[in-house]
Amino acid sequence: MLRTAVLASLLGSLTVFSASAADQPAKKPVSDQVVILREVDSLTSLLSDGVAGPGAEPKILFGPDGDAFVLFDMESWSGSNSLTQYVAIFTKVDTTGWQSAWRSHRYSLAAFMELGAGQQDWEFEADDLSVDMYDIITVKGLTWGPKDAHCCPSIHKNIKVKYSAGSFTYLKE
Fold first, then answer.
1. What is the pLDDT of residue 111?
2. Nearest by Cα to 42 from 100, 98, 107
3. Among 168, 135, 164, 145, residue whose Cα is nearest residue 68
4. Which long-range contacts (C-beta less than 8 Å, at least 24 apart) are formed by 64-67?
5. Which of 3, 37, 55, 128 could form a disulfide with 73 if both were Cys (CB 3.0 to 4.6 A apart)?
6. What local confidence, expressed as pLDDT, does residue 98 receive?
């Protein structure tokens, strides 16, 4: 009799537990776009001098294999009005077999570079990017003409960068 009462009590509590779990809405998976924005936010926090922060909304392109190519910028270095632009690549992580309760990083930072780093006479303001099937990144933007004010570059220019084996190389036009 006691055994039957204990089993009935356990069965009742399991029923209550399953009913309350079923009443809660299932969590929707986060989009890849949101995941990449979070990864870029983490990267900008690491790069910051404590004052610099994210600038314009990052431009994100997804390659055919799911990797993400990102153009982003940071501004207000040391409280100034300077701007630094970056290209980053986040590779898709295989999450096959992962349980939904496990915290998942679906992307891993493969490489990033500061645009213009190590380049002489770098006068370029990037505003978009494209990627071809050979991982050649074309960064599109504007450069300054002889009569342009600092605020307002007017000449269209493309910079080509090759990504290979975790590093970037500028390509000649």
1. 92
2. 107
3. 135
4. 64/133, 65/92, 66/32, 66/92, 67/91, 67/92, 67/110
5. 55
6. 67
